[in-house]
Automatic annotation (TrEMBL):
SMART domains per UniProt: AAA
GO molecular-function term, one example from the UniProt record: ATP binding
Name of the molecule in the record: Ribose transport system ATP-binding protein
Membership in a protein family: Belongs to the ABC transporter superfamily.
UniProt KW keywords: ATP-binding, Cell membrane, Membrane, Nucleotide-binding, Repeat, Sugar transport, Translocase, Transmembrane, Transmembrane helix, Transport
Sequence intervals crossing the membrane: 526-544, 550-569, 606-626, 633-656, 676-697, 725-751, 757-775, 782-804, 810-827
């Protein structure tokens, strides 16, 4: 154990950095913390232990300002903090590394760090240079422009740690930082921790691994059921006493007894497995035995687990109880427990009960109808065996602690009554008491004849749990350990001494350097290239049928019509980037034209016309504000809020004018529709606005924040982004851009008509989809949106020149949308598979 600062702590002379006194936290009426008092000193590592659901993460969220305590006091360096927020915490030098990294997957590595770190970190230096140094501190070697969704789970944890260390914090909170790290990365992290502790930083370290506690911590506090159950210097307390404090009982052993007699019956076997990640992998699972998979991270273990679960294709033969299975059959037989429960393990929109049973619903059916009584009985039974802590069966799955979510994943695997169980890091982030329950159930399942294969980065876990261990290196099986050979030393030695070892540090990616072409193809602007090509080819085709199509007048007309749609679609892009939508843009554009028709007339003064324009922009500002407030503070969905606004605005339009009236000033129309060559100046203005918008999206914090909340609102909030304010400002920007489209629409129709504008809602969404913006938020481009608006207008114009009926307009629009959606989904699938 590091001795840093122990004497000072023992003497009690160190100043307290953070003091929590009498902290209570309730969720509804359920207490998460009760009368918690604890002090943290400079120059020490203070470990917080406890079972899943004991209140550790809640306590850390209170210290970092993400949650507010129901009762109690927080003081920092002797000064009381009346309301701790993420911004206040950062200003005091409190950094946190979350158990589930607050990584924004639709942003690049560089953008993730620039949006999360204060400007003072960069202090006028080139951002790329600063970010590279930040990544070097944790040994993370990845391209800065690479999108974060390409990172592995371990690399995301390293990026999260890098963000926390970059703040040079006075207090650093590390919540299960090594859960996904290999030994090399763990050793590197411990070296960094010792360095900053030596400089006086207070480190709050949450872990479930007692071995780590002995390596790095000075003091330990144990929570159970939201209360402090004990606090002591690490050197003065035994592991047995710690376990007793954590679980409230004495565990007889860390692992259940292994199979005592070797069976000659083979339950499961894989022979000659070959894929892009595996080479000639063969091993078998005797009945009643658990087989472990080991190796340095990045050497094919996760890929092997996915092959065994039927999630990836492979050559070779897979046999279950004498029956050869193809991939489809294997997928049906296997129950897969993924290492990343947030992405693959739980369905975030479902309840606890639904997450536990959705893969086994047919087992609760009577006559084709689900029996709720039978379902609840089996779920309650398995939850009791695994000690799952949940407020209720119908609670949202994300309301549970990470370890309890993992138990729900295991419950689902067991309820499906599988032919084999494939467990990838099954105890990652799970407390010591729950680990024993998971080990016990895996052993019971194995003893019943169901093959169990476990991948774990913890050699001690493999030694205690498994009867046989296969060691991987660069996709090869390099050693098989059986019986008494299964020891921590043999497992580690086989992994690190393998000649085929690929240096698989979690910090590396397979290709650290990629060409600018590869980066562009992965960027948000990539869909603009095929869109521009289609636009040109369509123009040439129609020109071949009718020479007037490319006349100066028609080109001007296409661009002029596309300008109104382009501005409105740019507004829609802002809403979609945030993960929302705005159905009110069409009626809003029509309403603003109606408003203008009372002021911008030939017989009105310049002052009156100016007032008309100001009223248009004011109306747009108010509409955007109301939309944003309804969504963020009245709990409306974006569809519900903007649909209500759609109806309200359309009603107002008819209240102001029940028929077309109020002709727009011809002088204003001529000025707005001013022509330069074949281009309307308004269209060139649209292009310029799109360019400014692209710069804001890619180069400023405002743009990063906008994309961040669309990528992952929860992670954005934990990063310190003011989500509600950003969302409201985004909807205001959406409406203001729509008002520019309304100015163009006003000069095109020339009269205040309450029936105009409605169609722009669907057209704007069509243009945005064609431009490649994601309907789920986080990804998009104004350039693609403008091209989408031009192509859509060109299609409508081409139908006329080709002498086709209006039916073809809708047909061609539908075909374009389907093609765009297919291209986008194909690209996303390829990125995910990579």
């Amino acid at each position: 154990m590091a001795e840093l600062g122990v004497k000072e702590i023992e003497a009690g002379t160190g100043d307290v950095v953070i003091r929590l006194a009498g902290i209570y936290k309730y969720f509804s009426v359920v207490p998460a913390l009760s009368d918690v008092s604890v002090e943290f000193y400079p120059g020490e590592v203070h470990a917080i232990l406890g079972e899943n659901g004991a209140g550790k993460s809640t306590l850390m969220n209170i210290i970092s300002g993400i949650l507010q305590p129901t009762e109690g006091e927080i003081s920092f360096e002797g000064q009381p903090i009346h309301q701790m927020t993420p911004e206040v915490a950062k200003s005091h030098g409190i950094g946190i590394c979350f158990q589930h990294p607050a990584i924004l997957e639709d942003l690049s590595i560089l953008e993730n760090l620039r949006v999360a770190l204060p400007a003072s970190v960069f202090s006028g230096r080139p951002p790329q240079e600063v970010v590279q140094q930040v990544l070097d501190t944790v040994g993370l070697r990845v391209p800065l422009r690479m999108r974060a969704d390409s990172l592995t789970v371990a690399q995301k944890h390293l990026l999260e740690i890098a963000k926390a260390l970059a703040l040079k914090p006075k207090v650093l909170i590390l919540d299960e930082p090594t859960a996904s790290l290999d030994q090399e990365s763990t050793d590197m992290l411990f070296d960094r921790i010792r360095e900053i502790v030596g400089a006086g930083t207070s480190v709050i370290y949450i872990t479930h691994r007692l071995a780590e506690l002995r390596q790095i911590a000075h003091r330990v506090t144990v929570l159970r059921d939201g209360r402090v159950r004990g606090a002591e210097l690490v050197r003065n307390i035994s592991d047995a006493d710690l376990v007793s404090l954590i679980v409230g009982r004495t565990l007889k052993a860390a692992f259940p007894p292994k199979s005592q007699r070797a069976s000659e019956e083979i339950s499961f076997s894989i022979a000659g497995a070959n894929s892009k990640d595996l080479t000639d992998v063969s091993f078998d699972v005797p009945r009643g035995q658990i087989v472990g998979v080991a190796g340095v991270a990045g050497n094919g273990q996760p890929e092997l687990m996915r092959v065994l679960a039927g999630l990836q294709p492979t050559e070779g033969t897979i046999t279950l109880r004498g029956r050869v299975l193809n991939q489809h059959e294997l997928l049906r037989e296997a129950a897969f427990m993924p290492s990343d429960r947030h992405i693959e393990g739980v369905a975030s929109g479902l309840t606890v009960r639904e997450n536990a049973t959705f893969s086994a619903l047919e087992k609760f059916a009577v006559g084709g109808i689900i029996s709720r009584k039978k379902e609840l009985a089996q779920v309650e039974s398995i939850f009791g065996e695994l000690a799952v802590k949940t407020p209720s069966m119908e609670a949202p799955i994300l309301s549970l602690s990470g370890g309890n979510q993992q138990k729900v994943v295991m419950s689902r695997a067991l309820l499906s009554e599988p032919g084999l169980i494939i467990a990838d890091e099954p105890t990652q982030g799970v407390d010591v008491g729950a680990r024993f329950e998971i080990y016990r159930i895996l052993r019971e399942v194995s003893a019943s004849g169901t093959p169990v294969i476990v991948n774990s980065s913890d050699a001690v876990e493999l030694e205690g749990l498994c009867d046989k261990v296969v060691v991987m290196s660069r996709g090869h099986l390099v050693e098989t350990l059986v019986g008494n050979e299964v020891t921590e030393e043999r497992i580690v030695a086989a992994a690190v001494k393998a000649e085929t070892h690929g240096g698989g540090s979690a910090s590396r990616v397979k290709a650290a350097k990629t060409s600018w072409i590869a980066h562009f193809l992965q960027s948000d602007n990539a869909p603009a290239v095929p869109l521009a090509l289609v636009t040109v080819l369509l123009g040439l085709y129609v020109y071949g049928q009718n020479e007037n199509f490319l006349s100066v007048y028609n080109i001007y007309n296409i661009f002029l019509l596309a300008t109104a749609l382009g501005f409105i679609a740019m507004g829609q892009t802002v809403a979609l980037l945030m993960g929302g939508i705005d159905l009110s843009v069409g009626p809003l554009a029509g309403f603003l034209v109606v408003v203008a028709s009372f002021f911008i007339n030939d017989d009105k003064s310049a002052v009156m016309m100016l007032a008309g324009f100001l009223l248009m922009f004011a109306g747009a500002f108010i509409t955007g504000t109301i939309n944003g407030v309804l969504i963020r503070f009245a709990n409306f969905t974006s569809i519900a809020a903007t649909l209500a606004m759609y109806i309200a605005i359309q009603g107002l339009s008819f209240l102001l004018r029940d028929n077309p009236d109020g002709y727009i000033s011809s002088a204003v129309t001529d000025w707005v529709n001013w022509q330069w060559g074949p281009f309307p100046v308004a269209f060139l203005t649209l292009v310029a606005v799109a360019g400014v918008g692209e710069y804001i999206l890619r180069r400023t914090k405002a743009g990063w924040r906008l994309r961040a909340i669309g990528s992952d609102e929860h992670s954005s909030r934990r990063t310190g982004i003011r989500v509600d304010l950003t969302f409201i400002m985004g909807y205001i920007a959406c409406s203001l851009l729509t008002s520019l489209g309304a100015v163009m629409l006003m000069t095109q129709i020339g009269v205040g008509d309450p029936r105009q504008g409605i169609n722009y809602t669907l057209s704007s969404i069509t243009a945005v989809v064609l431009g490649g913006t994601s309907l789920t938020g986080g990804r998009g481009t104004f350039v693609g949106t403008i091209l989408g608006a031009v192509l859509l207008t060109e299609v409508l114009n081409a139908v006329t020149f080709l002498g086709l009926t209006q039916t073809y307009q809708y047909l061609f629009q539908g075909v374009l949308i389907v093609v765009a959606a297919l291209i986008y989904s194909t690209v996303r699938r390829r990125e995910v598979s990579r």
